[in-house]
Amino acid sequence: MEHHHKPGLRVRLRITAARRRAWLSACLRPPCRKPPRRDHSDSVHKVARREIGGGHRRPPRPAAPSSSSFSCPEKFRNFQLQEEYDTYDDEVHFLVKLPFLCTRTKIIEIVAAKDVIFALAQSGLCAAFNRTTNKRICYLNISPDEVIRSLFYNKNNESLITVSVYESDRFSSLKCRTTPIEYIRRGQLKDGFPLFETESLKYPGFVEFDDVNGKVLTFSAKGCTYKVFDLKNYNFLYSICDENIQEIKISPGIMLVIYNYKKTNCHVPLTILSIEDGTPLKTFNQLLHRNRKVDFIEQFNEKLLVKQDKENLQIIDVRNSDLIEVNKTEFMTPSAFIFLYENNLFLTFCNRTVAAWNFRGELVTSFEDHELWHPNCNTNNIYITAGHDLIISYCKVSKQRADCVDSEAGEVLSMGSINMSDIFTGKCVAKISPADPTLTIAPRRRGDDSRSTIRSTVPEALEDITALFYDEDRNEIYTGNSKGLVHVWSN
Questions:
Q1: Which of 132, 207, 262, 370 registers the highest number of CB atoms within 10 A of its CB?
Q2: How far apart are CA 399 and CA 167, in angstroms?
Q3: What is the pLDDT of residue 447?
Q4: Is-contact 346 363, C-beta < 8 A?
Q5: What distance in Å separates the CA atoms of residue 454 and residue 375, rounded to the nearest whole number?
Q6: What's the mean pLDDT in 375-396?
Q7: Nearest to 7 by CA among 245, 365, 252
Q8: Cβ–Cβ < 8 Å for 430, 75
Q9: Could you report the per-residue pLDDT of 15-39, keeping only the tens digit for each?
Q10: Which residues are the signal sequence here (predicted)?
């Protein structure tokens, strides 16, 4: 995919500089793909007028029924297994010096830009494949001791940012590098250049890419300094230095600063800043239930979401302090959120289930036949389309259609299905399932020498999928599995 970020989605791709071998699991929060940058040139005035108070506010656009229920079955009809790419081969041994980089591990992230597919393995090895020729272009590890932690496609300048750690400093510090996609296509990795070299991103430092506002946020533990950079040209914009800050969360046009507080406190100090220049827009104390752990504090435009352990969800309007509570029996603390800004909704992920809520605290959608395969949802194994109408996930095969059941053990085999569900209705509108007898490996066209060699069977390709990506322009789904293989599904 020419990595299409979804407009109006909240993104938090935060990578922390974890100690020792903690690089094995990237720290990505919350789980959503990176949306396109929106124009916030007058954010200070917009936020002051709309989020903080004063003036008239346009009512939220109603969540109208989606047309995906009509278009998606046709769009995904006759999907077949088209290609298979292997991240590993003997060539790896000549390029890296760390033994674990040569060990076959699962794919944890897939990113596509233009006609290039990037597959990042849990070991830290990252390979680039040309979707036109179906050949591997190169490995992105330009240093023999480089362990790549995460990828970010910057659509502003059509480049790929890699975030890595190195054995030379015991994997303790993050290093960022940007390389134009065209250079990668030609194998000219050396023509990329490092980013944020002046920043000390040692643990617990981090770098966070926010494509909604077109900003990069870094944190240096040395001096407790947060810095904001422009994502278009990486120019430094401003810094925030305060050892009392516990966390900063980003929303369109604004940042929510959460200050340190104790469990015994009856309030948490908060400040809302303009994302453009760091100007304070509102400072206030949010009341808390004393001696209750805070599960989360999230900002969504003028709405503040606060959830404490064994307490109701609170939705507070920061303009006028209006409060809506959702009973704790109805709203359980999710493992992750996805904010759909354009539709004024948010998705929650909890115990393999997905639900859509509005900011009146009402459950809008419960998804049928969409039980996630992985208990802990993350950024890389779901996809939401640009129209905010479809969620694509790797799911468990429904019991009604589980023809592939071991009759003796009575357990579903270790393979799932790729489900496409309508966000507004919760209906499963299309599926790539091992129970589908028509699902096959697409035949090779006569004279097509670009076709890769597919060694997996269709059930094997649907077994233990660990990463998923949808190219909306090409109408192709890319999946990676625990064997380090990448598969292409299309019609």
A1: 207
A2: 47
A3: 61
A4: no
A5: 29
A6: 86
A7: 252
A8: yes
A9: 544 322 233 222 223 333 333 333 4
A10: none
- Compute the C-alpha angle 214/220/224, nearest 5°: 110
Dihedrals phi, psi of 212, to nearest 5 degrees: -65, -50
Report pLDDT for 127.
95
206/18 Cα distance (integer angstroms):
9
Distance CA 102, CA 106 (A): 12
The owner of tokens 């509102």 is: 282
Residue-wise pLDDT for 70-120, tens only, equals 456 788 888 999 999 999 987 777 777 788 888 899 999 999 998 999 999
- Distance between CA atoms of 252 and 43, rounded to whole angstroms? 8
How many Å is the Cα radius of gyration of the chain? Answer: 23
